[in-house]
Every structure is written in C-alpha cells, then in structure tokens.
UniProtKB/TrEMBL annotation:
Residues 89-277 form the ABC transmembrane type-1 domain. The chain crosses the membrane at residues 41-70, 95-121, 141-169, 212-234, 254-276. SUPFAM superfamilies: MetI-like. GO terms for cellular component: plasma membrane. The keyword Nucleotidyltransferase does not apply. It is found in: Cell membrane. Keywords: Cell membrane, Membrane, Transmembrane, Transmembrane helix, Transport. One of its GO terms (biological process) is transmembrane transport. Belongs to the binding-protein-dependent transport system permease family. This is ABC transporter permease. It is a multi-pass membrane protein.
Length: 286
C-alpha cells in the first residue's frame, strides 16, 4: 500500500507572512487616510466664509435678503470701523476678555481643587455629588439677575457668572478622573509605608492632571458664555452689553458686529488654550 505524500510547500509560510504586510501597505491610504495639510484646511475654510459673505452681499443687493432684518456685509463692515474708531468697542472687547480669562482661571483652579479633594473622603464625595449635579442642571441664566444684583453691574458679577458655569464642570471632571486612578498603584504605595499625602502627590495628582488639562478648551468656551450672559443681564461695558444696546435700537449691523467679534474671540481663545494644553501635557509626560 503506497502512502500518499503531499507535495512540499516550499516557501508557503513565507508567502503568507509577507501577504498581510503587502496588503496593509497597499491599503494604507484607505484604512488610515493621511492628515490634510493645515494650509488646505485654512484655504477651504476661508473660501467657504468668503463665498457666504459674497452670496449674502449679492442677495441683499438684489432684494432677495431683507437688509432691514439681516443687514449685509458691507454695512456690517462700516459699522465695525465706526465703532472701533469712534465708539467704545475696544473697551468692550477688553472688558469681555478680562472677565472671561478671570472666570476661566478661577473656575478651572477652584474646580480642580474641589474635585481632587473628593479623593480624601468618600462620604464627602457622595454627599457633594448630587448637590453639584443639581447645581449643574440649574439654568445659569436664572441665576444671572441675582448675581448682578448682589455684585453690581461691574466686572465682579461677570467674573462670577463665568466662574459659576466653569467650576461645576471642572469639579465633576476632576472627580471622575480621581475615581479612575489605578487602585493597585495606591495599594502598592500603602504597602510600602507611604502616607496618604504621599499617595496623593505621587499617584493621584499626576494621574488626574492630564484629564484636568484636557478640559481647558471646553472651559474657555463656557467662561466666555458666562461672561456674555452676565453682560447681557446688566453691565456698563462688554460685547454682551453692546449687542443688547444694538438690539434695543434695531441696529442689525451692530448686532452682527458683536456676534462676529465674539466668534473670532472664541476661536482665538480656543486656539491659544489648545496650544497651552498640548504644551502642559507634553511637559507632564516628559
């Protein structure tokens, strides 16, 4: 009885081993699209904005878009120049910027400190968490008149509004980061004779810091929102006050000036805070 011998597979395993690498190399562009160049993104965004502005101007000139209700880019540009040269727009921008930055700094630092303090007592954390969630769910616009009445129409009430919106989010974010700290690392340090303070400084704080820093870009937008709400309720300065005044006089062009200025300010703050965030995270990770 003759045994059936399979033909030898010379190099079969080598071919199979090489196949995935060749396939991945050919399909890399489909599986992992390359990041677009920054200049392409900037040019595309600029083209979209320019197209919208041009279409808006042409439709307004043709009478399709009501100039009374929507104004038009050329009128908005003239209003911008007038308020920069003859109005108080520079002072309003400075006022809103100051209240936003102060509210951001106080809210982020205060929220991080309170959130990190939850690590020291589970009872304290369990008692405070539902109260914080209730405060977060409460509409801040309803609190704005009381804050303005208590602190006045100056800068402190705007900083307080910005802080009130930022700090609750930061507390909850820091608390969530604390709860996800590796318990095995904490147990290891305790077994080596470390104190609670040493565990906090060597494990808990370094582990939660990247999560706190990663929320900066969200916090700066919330701080700007809080400052504008405070200005809109009652203020002598600020972009929110300028928009409210323009609305009361039906100056649509000035309303758009305020809205576009806020959009540019929010974008610039987002970019700057994002750069700071990346630098800090890179320094932490070494």
């Amino acid at each position: 009885m003759t045994a059936v011998v399979s033909p030898p597979r010379v190099g079969a395993m080598d071919s199979l081993a090489d196949l995935p690498r060749r396939t991945a190399r050919r399909r890399r562009g489909e599986l992992f699209p390359a990041e677009p160049a920054n200049w392409k993104i900037a040019v595309t965004v600029a083209a979209i904005v320019l197209g919208i502005v041009l279409a808006w101007e042409l439709l307004a000139d043709a009478g399709i878009v009501s100039v009374f209700f929507w104004s038009k880019p050329s009128m908005i540009w003239r209003s911008l120049l007038t308020n920069i040269t003859k109005g108080s727009m520079i002072a309003d921008i400075r006022f809103t910027f100051t209240s936003t930055i102060l509210g951001f700094v106080i809210g982020v630092l205060g929220g991080a400190i309170v959130g990190l303090s939850f690590w020291w007592s589970r009872f304290y954390a369990k008692v405070a968490e539902p109260l914080l969630i209730a405060l977060e769910a409460m509409p801040k616009l309803a609190l704005a008149p009381m804050i303005v009445l208590a602190l006045g129409i100056g800068l402190p009430s705007k900083v307080a509004m910005a802080t009130a919106i930022v700090i609750i989010i930061q507390i909850l974010n820091a608390h969530a980061a604390v709860r996800h700290v590796d318990r095995d690392e904490q147990t290891l340090l305790y077994s080596l004779g470390a104190s609670r303070w040493q565990v906090f400084t060597k494990v808990v704080f370094p582990a939660t810091l990247p999560h706190i820093i990663a929320s900066f870009r969200v916090a700066i937008g919330l701080a700007l929102t809080g400052a504008i709400v405070g200005e809109y309720v009652g203020s002598q300065n600020g972009l929110g006050k300028m928009i409210q005044l323009a609305a009361s006089t039906f100056d649509i062009s000035l309303i758009w000036v305020g809205v576009f200025t806020l959009a540019v300010m929010a974008f610039l703050l987002y970019i700057v805070v994002g750069v700071i965030e990346r630098i800090l995270i890179r320094l932490i990770r070494g």
